[in-house]
Specification:
The protein is an alpha/beta fold. The chain is built from 13 helices and 13 strands. Helix 2 packs antiparallel against helix 9, helix 4 packs across helix 8 and helix 11 packs across helix 13.
Length: 375
C-alpha cells in the first residue's frame, strides 16, 4: 500500500480512531443525555447496557463493573473461592487472570497450553486437579473460545466451577455456544482496544445463575443490601461501570458483529498471503473466533519485529513471559506441573500483527510483503 508519492504507508497495530470516528454522532447523543440527567454513577444507561449485553451473550444476567480484572475477582469472590483454594489457570494468558485469583487469597495453579491454538490444554488441567482445586478458568485467548466440551466435562466430573475469561472474546462462538454462556460465569473487559471497547476502563460479569449475579452485584457495590442501601450484608468493594461508559457501549454493541466479521475477513487474507515461515495460530473445528489479535509464530521475532518497525508497521507480543515466570507471581502460585514446554517455546516465537475492523486487504498485503522480506 502506497501514497501518491510512492512512499509506503504505515499500518497501525490497532486503528482506534477508525473504529470510533464513525460513531461520533451516537457518542454525542450519549454524552448529552447523561450530562442532562446527571446520574453519572448507576444511571439508567447501565441497566440498559447490562440487559443488552446479557442477551448478546445468551446469559440471564450481566453486572457492569470497573474492569475485566475486577470481573474475574468478583466471580471468584461470589463463589466463595479464597484462601486455601487453588484455581487452574493457563500460563499463557495476560497476568490479570492470575492477579484476580491472587486477590481473593486463592492460589493459581498454572498449566500448559495446546501447541496449535495456545489455549488451555484440557489434559494438563485434568492432571493438575487435587483436593484443593476449586475452579478452572478457561481463557478464550486471542478471540477464540476454548472448546467447551472437554473442559466442561472435566469441571463437572470433579465438581469444579468453570469460569470463562472472555476479555478477548466478545462475540466468539464454538459449535453454536456463545462466549459467556458456557461456565458458571464469565468476565469481560471493555478496555478501549477490545473488540467491544469503552472510551476508558470497564468490564462486566455475565451469568445465568441469578443468585450468583445478585451476590456479585452486592459485593461490587460495597456489599449493599437490596432492600436497604444503608445496610451492608456482605464484605464488599467499589467496582462499578460508569453511566457514560455504559451509554457508549450501548452505542457500539449493535456494530460488534459486523466489526468481528471484518476482523475475520482480514485474518482470512492473512492466511492466504502470509509467507512461508509465518505460522498463524490454528482454529479448532467448530470454532468461530472474533480475532481480537492476529497471532503468528516466527523463528526470529527480534529480526522480524525490527523489520516491521522500520517499515512503519505496528506489532506486539501477547505474551512474551508466561505467568509462571513472572517475578510478581513468584511464590504465589502452585505449579500444575514442571512442564510448560509449549508455552515457554511459544513465548519466544509469537508475534501479533495489525488487526482492526478497519484493516484493508491492501494493508494485509503490505504487512505480508514486509514479512516476506524479513524472512
Amino acid at each position: 500500500m502506497t501514497v501518491a508519492s510512492g512512499v509506503p504507508c504505515s499500518v497501525p497495530f490497532l486503528d482506534l480512531g477508525g473504529v470510533n470516528n464513525g460513531l461520533r454522532e451516537e457518542f454525542d447523543v450519549a454524552w448529552k443525555t447523561v450530562l442532562d440527567h446527571g446520574h453519572f454513577v448507576g444511571g439508567p444507561e447501565v441497566e440498559r447496557f447490562e440487559s443488552e449485553f446479557a442477551s448478546y451473550c445468551e446469559a440471564q444476567a450481566c453486572i457492569g463493573v470497573a474492569n475485566g480484572t475486577d470481573a474475574l475477582e468478583l466471580i471468584l469472590s461470589g463463589l466463595g473461592i479464597g484462601r486455601g483454594d487453588e484455581v487452574i489457570v493457563p500460563t499463557n494468558t495476560f497476568i490479570a487472570t492470575a492477579e484476580a485469583v491472587c486477590a481473593t487469597g486463592a492460589r493459581p495453579r498454572f498449566v500448559d497450553v495446546c501447541p496449535d491454538t495456545l489455549l488451555i490444554d484440557p489434559a494438563a488441567a485434568q492432571a493438575a486437579i487435587n483436593s484443593s482445586t476449586a475452579a478452572i478458568i478457561a481463557v478464550h485467548l486471542y478471540g477464540q473460545m476454548v472448546d467447551p466440551e472437554p473442559i466442561s466435562a472435566i469441571a463437572a466430573a470433579h465438581g469444579l466451577a468453570l469460569i470463562e475469561d472472555a476479555a478477548q472474546a466478545h462475540g466468539a462462538r464454538h459449535r453454536g455456544t456463545s462466549a459467556g454462556s458456557v461456565g458458571i460465569a464469565a468476565g469481560f473487559s471493555f478496555y478501549p482496544g477490545k473488540n467491544l471497547g469503552a472510551l476508558g476502563d470497564g468490564g462486566a460479569v455475565v451469568t445465568s445463575d441469578l443468585a450468583l449475579a445478585d451476590r456479585i452485584r452486592s459485593i461490587a457495590n460495597h456489599g449493599r443490601s437490596v432492600s436497604d442501601r444503608y445496610l451492608h450484608d456482605l464484605a464488599g468493594r467499589n467496582s462499578r461501570l460508569d453511566t457514560l461508559q455504559a451509554a457508549l457501549l450501548s452505542a457500539k454493541l449493535p456494530r460488534l458483529d459486523a466489526g468481528n466479521a471484518r476482523r475475520a475477513a482480514a485474518m482470512a487474507a492473512y492466511r492466504e498471503m502470509l509467507p512461508q515461515g509465518c505460522t498463524p495460530v490454528s482454529v479448532q473445528p467448530g470454532a468461530a473466533p472474533v480475532y481480537h489479535l492476529a497471532v503468528i509464530q516466527v523463528d526470529d521475532r527480534s529480526e522480524v519485529g525490527a523489520t516491521l518497525t522500520a517499515a512503519g508497521i505496528g506489532w506486539g507480543v501477547h505474551y512474551p513471559i508466561p505467568c509462571h515466570q513472572q517475578p510478581a507471581l513468584a511464590g504465589r502460585y502452585q505449579p500444575g506441573s514442571d512442564d510448560f514446554a509449549v508455552a515457554e517455546r511459544a513465548a519466544g516465537r509469537i508475534l501479533s500483527l495489525p488487526m482492526s475492523p478497519t484493516l484493508t486487504v491492501e494493508q494485509v498485503a503490505r504487512v505480508c510483503d514486509v514479512l516476506g522480506g524479513a524472512l
